[in-house]
Amino acid sequence: MTGNASSYAAAGVDTAAGDLAVELMKSAVGATHGPQVLGGVGGFAGLWDASALTAYRKPLLATSTDGVGTKVAIAQALDIHDTIGQDLVAMVVDDIIVVGAKPLFMTDYIACGKVHPQRIADIVRGIAEACTATGTALVGGETAEHPGLLGVDDYDVAGAAVGVVEADEVLGPERVQHGDLVIAMASSGLHSNGFSLVRHILAKRGIGYHDDLAELGGTVGKTLLEPTRLYTAPLLDVLAELPGAVHALSHVTGGGIAANLARVLPVGSWVELDRASWSPTPVFRVLADLAGDTLESTEGTWNLGIGMLAVVAHDSASTVIRALESRGIPSWVAGAVSTHARDLAGFEQGAKGVDGGAVRLVGAYAN
Length: 367
What we know:
CATH 3.30.1330.10; Phosphoribosyl-aminoimidazole Synthetase, Chain A, domain 2; 4-stranded mixed β-sheet; 11 helices; 15 strands; cytoplasm; Phosphoribosylformylglycinamidine cyclo-ligase; PurM-like_N_sf; nucleotide-binding; PurM-like_C_sf
């Protein structure tokens, strides 16, 4: 071993472990590569052949970046690392489909206190499998060892993706009209938001991730690690099969249902979402009960059973629902868009710097 390598190892960085992690993940990453990806795995930069974009009339590139928040703390506590990758892809790629864009490629970044090769490979395998499911090439990534900054079993993940959409096919507030219906798409659980609150509730009640709660039908940890549902592939199919039917999409992430829908509505419009149109799944009810709160009080934090919303033409709603459900996405009408003047007190109006429409939830949840 050279002097420099020895010094680096003494500082807590194991380059050999990093190399082994790359070898373990190579096949999973390679499986996401089509003919557009050049150079394989391990280069300084990923290469993607953009010549296919010449077929577009006016291609717009869409990009998104995100992580999975403190859900990684639960994966670490349970030593289960092959699901968190799907959460990452969902958080990044399902933001791209919101504007109607087809994802092209993604990169990931994993920061850890110590490289455990099999753990890193498990994380990346989950990312790669979800990339395959969404038609996204995983063209590059980085695993960085940060001894002294992160504990030896600590890590965090982040990713970024790029997609493309025709300029005249971009979805958003400009397409939304009075009378459009709002279709809700079921979530698979908590997805990747609100876990700081989840962990606080469990710690306060002395409940561990290995505890078995009958109301959940299994252990707490297994329920909480349920991967985020992937909406991209089904929605791309719907957009292609029913051109013009979908006017806007909203990914229900941080901020909850109302705030995220408000972001994709035009100023001056409003929606009342009917809570009676769905029943929040047990995980939300159990957590709210443990906290001594109502479901309504958590609406700004959790998705409560809705992972994505679509604003669609009134006469296309039933067709869109059938198309989504045939692809395994339970869906239903939850509200309608109105531009009639009214008092908007109590509505969420825009979010995250966007001056959008106004949304509130009304009624009582179905049992």
